[in-house]
């Protein structure tokens, strides 16, 4: 049974094109067994009709403090409505509404209810790409988070303007999953935060060339998805990849080089409970990066290299509570090398994959791994889909915290 069953939900709809999706959202919430009270801002009437929403929610929809034609002095009491709700969803939340919420501006019924609410408030922003990345929107979202509101991240894709990028309101199904996960305390990684690295790093030589490797990012993305499905909040730091992920609990941070990955990992490390380092990080980077494209003027071309920081080892050196899982990609003396990495990087567990095993390693949909714990116990696994390997890895984190 959904955790939404029997819940009283106040759905606030504001004036953006994504408002058309709220008809589907109301249907899904009703199907999950929730009772819905829809509140619309005047601007939202341009995008979806109150009649549609009152039909689907089986209740009158409110927009104003006073209803038209009501001469009896009754009004839509914002305080009572706020107290009635077990929680509030504001979807879509336009840039304008986010700004009002962040600054306590109370010029419509929905904002009066918001300011009166004592219950959890979920906010699903939706706007065009440039509005979404504007510093003021970013600041307003951060302010709302600091007030304890729960942001349901906007999704990537084609926007109504024709631009492609982040800013779409989360799909109704994803909003339901997000809220379900939020209240579902039975998920084993609920309340845990996990940092995952994925993909290759690109080490620039000049403006058009780089040193990279064959990592597709799939292994790391699969681990991120599995961890989020089990309730963890995930920070996924990824090098260049074609992989896509869409889960409200996953925050993707894209980087290019090992140094950038190092900085992001250290920014988040203190706040996380576990780390899974699936990225194939370049061990060296060109000493000098040319400002202009290098011309082929000589028969030989030598690149001097500097050693990159070992990100995982640097995290291992300062770890306190964190459960640290590393990967080892080997081509010879696999177990010996993996054991050395456990010690050198102060790991709790290493996932060894060898390029000598058919179907293992880079770019493939499968992997064959051996788990080695810090006491050097070996657990060889069969060849599996990377999604299945991800389940096994996430289970190790769950077992650790059980
Ligand atoms: O992305 P896919 O195509 O799905 O392929 C998955 C994978 C083969 C890349 C993945 O399963 C894998 O093995 N990742 C680690 C590859 C690697 O760089 O291994 P390593 O033995 O060189 O490094 C050991 C560990 O230290 C790794 O966890 C690595 O992320 C980390 N490391 C390495 C170097 C460095 N400078 N900083 C690091 O943090």
UniProtKB/TrEMBL annotation:
<keyword id="KW-0436">Ligase</keyword>
<feature type="binding site">
    <location>
        <position position="345"/>
    </location>
    <ligand>
        <name>CTP</name>
    </ligand>
</feature>
<keyword id="KW-0460">Magnesium</keyword>
<dbReference type="InterPro" id="IPR005252">
    <property type="entry name" value="CoaBC"/>
</dbReference>
<comment type="pathway">
    <text>Cofactor biosynthesis; coenzyme A biosynthesis; CoA from (R)-pantothenate: step 3/5.</text>
</comment>
<feature type="binding site">
    <location>
        <position position="293"/>
    </location>
    <ligand>
        <name>CTP</name>
    </ligand>
</feature>
<feature type="binding site">
    <location>
        <position position="341"/>
    </location>
    <ligand>
        <name>CTP</name>
    </ligand>
</feature>
<comment type="similarity">
    <text>In the N-terminal section; belongs to the HFCD (homo-oligomeric flavin containing Cys decarboxylase) superfamily.</text>
</comment>
<dbReference type="GO" id="GO:0046872">
    <property type="term" value="F:metal ion binding"/>
</dbReference>
<keyword id="KW-0479">Metal-binding</keyword>
<comment type="function">
    <text>Catalyzes two sequential steps in the biosynthesis of coenzyme A. In the first step cysteine is conjugated to 4'-phosphopantothenate to form 4-phosphopantothenoylcysteine. In the second step the latter compound is decarboxylated to form 4'-phosphopantotheine.</text>
</comment>
<dbReference type="InterPro" id="IPR007085">
    <property type="entry name" value="DNA/pantothenate-metab_flavo_C"/>
</dbReference>
<keyword id="KW-0456">Lyase</keyword>
<comment type="similarity">
    <text>In the C-terminal section; belongs to the PPC synthetase family.</text>
</comment>
<dbReference type="GO" id="GO:0010181">
    <property type="term" value="F:FMN binding"/>
</dbReference>
<dbReference type="GO" id="GO:0015941">
    <property type="term" value="P:pantothenate catabolic process"/>
</dbReference>
<comment type="pathway">
    <text>Cofactor biosynthesis; coenzyme A biosynthesis; CoA from (R)-pantothenate: step 2/5.</text>
</comment>
<dbReference type="InterPro" id="IPR036551">
    <property type="entry name" value="Flavin_trans-like"/>
</dbReference>
<feature type="domain" description="DNA/pantothenate metabolism flavoprotein C-terminal">
    <location>
        <begin position="189"/>
        <end position="399"/>
    </location>
</feature>
<dbReference type="InterPro" id="IPR003382">
    <property type="entry name" value="Flavoprotein"/>
</dbReference>
<dbReference type="GO" id="GO:0004632">
    <property type="term" value="F:phosphopantothenate--cysteine ligase activity"/>
</dbReference>
<feature type="domain" description="Flavoprotein">
    <location>
        <begin position="7"/>
        <end position="181"/>
    </location>
</feature>
<feature type="binding site">
    <location>
        <begin position="309"/>
        <end position="312"/>
    </location>
    <ligand>
        <name>CTP</name>
    </ligand>
</feature>
<dbReference type="InterPro" id="IPR035929">
    <property type="entry name" value="CoaB-like_sf"/>
</dbReference>
<dbReference type="GO" id="GO:0071513">
    <property type="term" value="C:phosphopantothenoylcysteine decarboxylase complex"/>
</dbReference>
<dbReference type="Pfam" id="PF02441">
    <property type="entry name" value="Flavoprotein"/>
</dbReference>
<feature type="region of interest" description="Phosphopantothenate--cysteine ligase">
    <location>
        <begin position="194"/>
        <end position="402"/>
    </location>
</feature>
<dbReference type="GO" id="GO:0004633">
    <property type="term" value="F:phosphopantothenoylcysteine decarboxylase activity"/>
</dbReference>
<feature type="binding site">
    <location>
        <position position="283"/>
    </location>
    <ligand>
        <name>CTP</name>
    </ligand>
</feature>
<keyword id="KW-0288">FMN</keyword>
<keyword id="KW-0210">Decarboxylase</keyword>
<dbReference type="GO" id="GO:0015937">
    <property type="term" value="P:coenzyme A biosynthetic process"/>
</dbReference>
<feature type="binding site">
    <location>
        <position position="327"/>
    </location>
    <ligand>
        <name>CTP</name>
    </ligand>
</feature>
<comment type="function">
    <text>Catalyzes two steps in the biosynthesis of coenzyme A. In the first step cysteine is conjugated to 4'-phosphopantothenate to form 4-phosphopantothenoylcysteine, in the latter compound is decarboxylated to form 4'-phosphopantotheine.</text>
</comment>
<keyword id="KW-0511">Multifunctional enzyme</keyword>
<protein>
    <recommendedName>
        <fullName>Coenzyme A biosynthesis bifunctional protein CoaBC</fullName>
        <ecNumber>4.1.1.36</ecNumber>
        <ecNumber>6.3.2.5</ecNumber>
    </recommendedName>
</protein>
<feature type="region of interest" description="Phosphopantothenoylcysteine decarboxylase">
    <location>
        <begin position="1"/>
        <end position="193"/>
    </location>
</feature>
<dbReference type="Pfam" id="PF04127">
    <property type="entry name" value="DFP"/>
</dbReference>
<keyword id="KW-0285">Flavoprotein</keyword>
